[in-house]
Design goal:
The complex is a heterodimer. Chain A is of the alpha+beta class. Chain A folds into two domains: 210 residues, OB fold (Dihydrolipoamide Acetyltransferase, E2P), CATH 2.40.50; 68 residues, Orthogonal Bundle (Arc Repressor Mutant, subunit A), CATH 1.10.10.10. Chain A contains nine helices and 13 strands. By secondary structure, chain B is mainly β. Classes of the chains: A alpha+beta, B mainly beta. The interface between A and B is large, with 44 and 40 residues.
Chain lengths: 306, 388
């Protein structure tokens, strides 16, 4: 019998802290993201404030959207593509930040710099009242603490038998997850994570929700359009150097006059197109500049000099 | 040591059956019987055999009968076998009837006279179809009458739940034992079958029911109001009776929303066609196949019309009206999914497991409200606790 993957109750912070993957090997086997705090996640549920979504990619109409879910501990990218039409429609329909629950599959992308980018591919997005968001958060924190207790117990008493734990009410699936966490994250500050959960508990108690602007620069939401690792490119030609120069000049001009100090990618590609550099060329130039470390994109669609 | 002469083998009770070199004589009732054919390797000819379980009230053993009669052997048939061979398979004795064995019909009266104390007492948790030949001491959790049509005949069947300290079991009784909820019983002569994917104890005219004191048996109220259990545990156990779980709705499975049912058997139609009765005039109905998840596991809850209407806040009539506006059942299903997603529900009912996981047939679905103040206080206390 195949089991449906349970939706692990997690905070954004726990997802952001997860770096270890368990890749599927067999046919139709699931992949898992392993957290330092005892979760072995394929499917997750989160509660927080969801921002309006932005389209990703160059398809017109867009076939992939990305929003950000912010909870009191951090923020995580929530995506939906044309393979999740209903969730995509929900993301697109979001016009302002509001409380929501998100159910979806975790997705880990490791950039060429080795940095892991975690996102949640939404299966369901539900706008809820604030009380419902807080109720879900309460369950998320409770189960997270249950898992932390289990991980710490297994660290103190590694010999504890599975039967004993199951008899005292521990879900059987949590035990290998906790043991894996201990093995694969030998150096983790769980006390610090517990402290961070305090913010979530204050939110359950009625604190106002997190402001999305607070979290704009958190590591978990840095997204790049980095392609998978590939062999080093041949040195650029003079023509390519010229395009790069034009790109950087435009970037400087745009960021000088923008309020937030970033150059808008759409505007930049528009101007490049006017100079005869097509969108595809512009993308190639951007990738190369990012690779060389000249330009970075800390927020989707927003560029600056590195 | 005196041994019986081979011409008069001793009649043995099945519980005393042990591997011997000499054939034995037994009397037993057929519990299950299945016909097969075995192809001989030497000449490719086919040889029929009948195999199944045989019970005499003291024990139940497997039997294999080479070249059995064409007909007349079915569940309930009492047989006397003289010269049966005893073999051991996986440390359990089995009977083989060969051409040397004389097998003939016998009467009920020839079965060993057994007092209830001689029959092994079994716990509900350890019972599996097609077990029989056990004694059960349990309490009636609930019972209700149902009229069913068996062939031409209309019969009343009494259905309910029995519980002991180890678990809960569904039963159906074709004889009116005048059972009432809360009574403690000693049941002898019942057998287990699988009904709609779940084990069920069947009581018929061969079963005897005695009222007992019932010390140590659970009270119906505690079972029917038991706190919810982790869904992972329910999945491990493969379902069961009088289950309670609590979780959030993470999705719906098709078919959900407005469905059309066969007027004869109530199955959902696919394209106006019932898979048993063919093309029929479908009757509209509402249902929701809810995926409920509590973080440890997930199961499907088959909500019927009343529950679906209550949770959705829309009636069947509303749904049909909506279909006239937007004639696309997917839109309706999606609206239902949106309405239910994320809802916290406590569900009581009976569950069965198949290849797709556990499905719960609900007796009761209740939305759950979380007391945020209590939750916040509990979580603060836990965070404040210093752990070494």
């Amino acid at each position: 019998m195949s089991r449906r993957e349970p939706a692990w109750r997690v905070t954004a912070r726990e997802l952001e802290s997860s770096l270890e993957e368990e890749r599927a090997t067999g046919e139709r086997a699931a992949s898992y993201l392993l957290s330092p705090f005892g979760a072995r996640m394929n499917r997750v549920v989160l509660a927080g404030a969801i921002s309006p979504a932005e389209p990703v990619g160059r398809d017109d109409p867009p076939t992939f959207w990305r929003a950000r879910l912010t909870d009191p501990t951090g923020a995580i990218a929530v995506t939906a593509g044309s393979f999740q039409p209903v969730a995509m429609a929900r993301l697109r329909a979001t016009t302002e930040t509001h409380p929501a629950l998100v159910v979806g599959k975790v997705h880990l992308f490791r950039g060429r710099d080795g940095v892991a980018y975690i996102s949640v591919r939404a299966e369901g997005v539900k706008s809820v009242a604030e009380a419902d968001e807080r109720a879900m958060l309460a369950e998320i924190v409770r189960q997270t603490l249950d898992r932390l207790d289990l991980v710490e117990r297994l660290e103190r008493e590694p010999g504890t038998s599975e039967a004993e734990l199951v008899a005292s009410g521990t879900p059987a699936g949590w035990i290998p997850a906790a043991r894996d966490s201990l093995r694969r994250y030998p150096q983790v500050d769980r006390a610090a994570f517990r402290r961070e959960l305090g913010a979530a508990v204050r939110r359950v108690a009625g604190d106002s929700g997190p402001r999305p602007s607070d979290t704009g620069t958190r590591p978990g939401v840095v997204v790049t359009r980095a392609p998978p690792p590939r062999p080093p490119a041949p040195p650029p030609t003079a023509e390519e150097r010229e395009e790069e120069a034009a790109f950087l000049t435009l970037l400087d001009e745009l960021s000088d006059v923008s309020i937030d100090g970033y150059a808008d990618l759409k505007e930049l590609t528009g101007r490049l197109a006017a100079q005869g550099v097509g969108a595809e060329r512009a993308e190639t130039v951007l990738n190369r500049l990012e690779e060389e470390g000249a330009v970075e994109e800390p927020i989707v669609g927003k560029l600056r000099r590195a | 040591m005196a041994t019986a002469p081979p011409s008069a083998p001793p009649e043995v009770r099945l519980k005393d059956l042990a591997p011997t070199t000499s054939p034995v004589e037994i009397v037993g009732r057929v519990v299950t019987a299945e016909r097969r054919e075995v192809t001989r390797r030497s000449d490719g000819s086919r040889r029929p055999l009948l195999s199944g379980l045989l019970s005499d009230g003291t024990g139940t053993v497997r039997f294999t009968w080479w070249d059995p009669p064409r007909e007349g052997i079915e569940r309930g048939t009492v047989l006397r076998a003289v010269g049966a061979e005893v073999r051991t398979f996986r440390d359990r004795p089995e009977l083989t009837f060969t051409f040397r064995t004389r097998v003939g019909p016998a009467s009920e009266a020839e079965l060993p006279r057994v007092t209830p104390e001689e029959i092994p007492l079994r716990a509900i948790r350890d019972l599996r179809p097609p077990d029989e030949g056990f004694r059960l001491e349990a309490r009636v959790v609930r019972i209700a009458e149902r009229t069913v049509t068996v062939g031409e005949e209309r019969r009343v069947v009494h259905e309910g739940l029995l519980a002991d300290a180890s678990g809960v079991l569904a039963f159906s009784s074709w004889t009116d034992f005048r059972l009432a909820a809360g009574e403690a019983l000693r049941v002898v002569g019942g057998y287990l079958r699988t009904f709609r994917g779940r084990p069920q104890l069947v009581l018929d005219e061969r079963a005897t029911v005695t009222r007992i004191g019932g010390e140590g048996l659970p009270e119906p109220a505690e079972l029917l109001r038991a706190p919810p259990r982790p869904i992972a545990r329910v999945e491990d156990e493969g379902g069961g009776e009088a289950l309670a779980v609590e979780g959030i709705v993470v999705g719906l499975l098709p078919p959900s929303g407005l469905v059309y049912r066969c007027p004869i058997c109530r199955r959902s139609l696919t394209g106006g066609i019932c898979r048993i009765h063919g093309q029929v005039e479908g009757q509209p109905d509402l249902r929701a196949r809810i995926v409920l998840d509590d973080g440890t596991g997930a199961l499907t809850v088959n909500a019927g019309r009343a529950d679906t209407e209550r949770l959705w806040g829309r009636t069947l009539a509303d749904a049909r009206e909506r279909m006239r506006e937007v004639p696309d059942p997917n839109v309706l299903e999606q609206e239902l999914a949106d309405a239910l997603l994320g809802r916290r529900l406590r569900v009581r009912g009976s569950g069965s497991r198949d290849d797709f996981g556990v499905t719960l047939q609900p007796d009761e679905i209740e939305p759950v409200e979380i007391d945020l103040e209590v939750a916040a206080a509990e979580l603060s206390a836990r965070l404040g606790t210093v752990r070494r």
